[in-house]
Amino acid sequence: MEWNLRTAEQLLVALRAGEVTSVELTEQAITRIEREDEVINAICVPDFDRARAAARSADAARAGGEDRPLLGVPVTVKESYDIAGLPTTWGMPQYRAHVPAEDAVQVSRLRAAGAVLLGKTNVPLGLQDLQSFNEIYGTTNNPWNHARTPGGSSGGSAAALAAGFGALSIGSDIGGSLRTPAHFCGVYAHKPTLGLVAPRGMVAPPGPALPVELDLAVVGPMARTARDLTLLLDVMAGPDPLTLGVAYDLSLPPARHQRLSDFRVLVLDEHPLIPTGAAVRAGVNRVADALVDGGAHVVRHSPLLPDLAEAGTLYLQLLVSGSVARFPIEAYEQLQARAAGLSADDRSLDAARLRGMVFSHRDWMEANSRRELHRHGWRQLFAEFDAVVCPITPTPAFPHDPNPDLLERRIDIDGVEYPFFDQLVWAGLATMPGLPATAVPAGLSPDGLPVGVQLIGPTFEDRTPLRLAELLEPRIGGFQAPQ
């Protein structure tokens, strides 16, 4: 039997019933990768010998009466996570030989849950792109169309899931890096509430794996169904045992509702800073129609929604201020000179980004204060609504763009070009205030590319958008294997 495109939940049922062994699942996955990954290039660091050993151990444990959440299920891991004995490079050639001696927290949790790690998935240079290519491992192609990107920076993980290379994967997200690849490849992903999932060991080399509290960035699960997302989030969630875990245990509240007809949903398909392409707008409307058909209360406008233009600008400034903080002083001084030359009347996103790149600490504190006002606005909105449905990016997967200067790149939206980075404003809608957001497939574009949307939920109520995604799945089609 072909198991490679089954869900993790289905694999666990079969394993518990004795219909298949972990060794059989693992060998099938390896065979599929060896046969098909040459053209997709999702698995950049295979770890097949240790995967086979882990599968044998999983089968022995099950034979001995053990049953753990992921016991015997083959999975993949984004290259940026430390796995003891494997290189962690973030695609940076100078760290080609960097091999951590210790697993990241989330890798340890996967192992403790019984998962079988097939290997690592490809990323862009420094995780700084909406594509996934680098000098060390080359380019990852979208399984739906090899001329298109699978997204980034968790593009290798999304491509692996769409291609049937493991039932689950883990990635990270600061600029939509979980949600955009899921949208481009037709799979599911969940950006957890900021701080919900411990990120230690997901660190750029050669830095030590310290339990830092990240701003904006999260780590999270990817899967082919909403229920599998919840299964994996339950394995991943919880504080770092070195810090907050000393004192705190996690207790996520249940989803607000169990029936689709009880949900109150705000649907958005327009952003003041960038147009929404027709294919993505159609995907949003398919989800809106499914909600209405299921009896949900759907609204298209609300005065409670925080200002989207300010939110987008604020997000991009917080994002770039963190990215540039480690630039060499010469490069930083050049940016300062460019920013000083801006007209005071220039309110473009390009100008906002440049100003954000040279934020002083005082500037950052002011931006953070404005962020708190937005967070309060979202709390007020989620007193009236349970979720917000909106795009992840304005378009489906775009063609590979090898231009190394991301500021020179353009994104084509229905025949009109816009600055490449402007498309991040939809991802930032959830990222800037730290909200949970679940990416769900919403059908195909007219040219046969996957289209996804995100379901944004209230802070630390991650189970609410996940439950909504589960209820929507049979109504909007869910995962489809690439055609």
Automatic annotation (TrEMBL):
Residues forming coiled coils: none
SUPFAM superfamilies listed in its UniProt record: Amidase signature (AS) enzymes
Q: Which GO terms describe its cellular component?
A: endomembrane system
Which PROSITE patterns does the protein's record reference?
A: AMIDASES
- Which residue windows are transmembrane per the record? none
Tell me one Pfam family matched here.
Amidase
Q: Which residue range or ranges hold the Amidase domain?
A: 24-464
Q: Which NCBIfam families match?
A: PRK06170.1 (NF004816)
What protein am I looking at? Amidase
- Its source organism is Kribbella flavida (strain DSM 17836 / JCM 10339 / NBRC 14399)
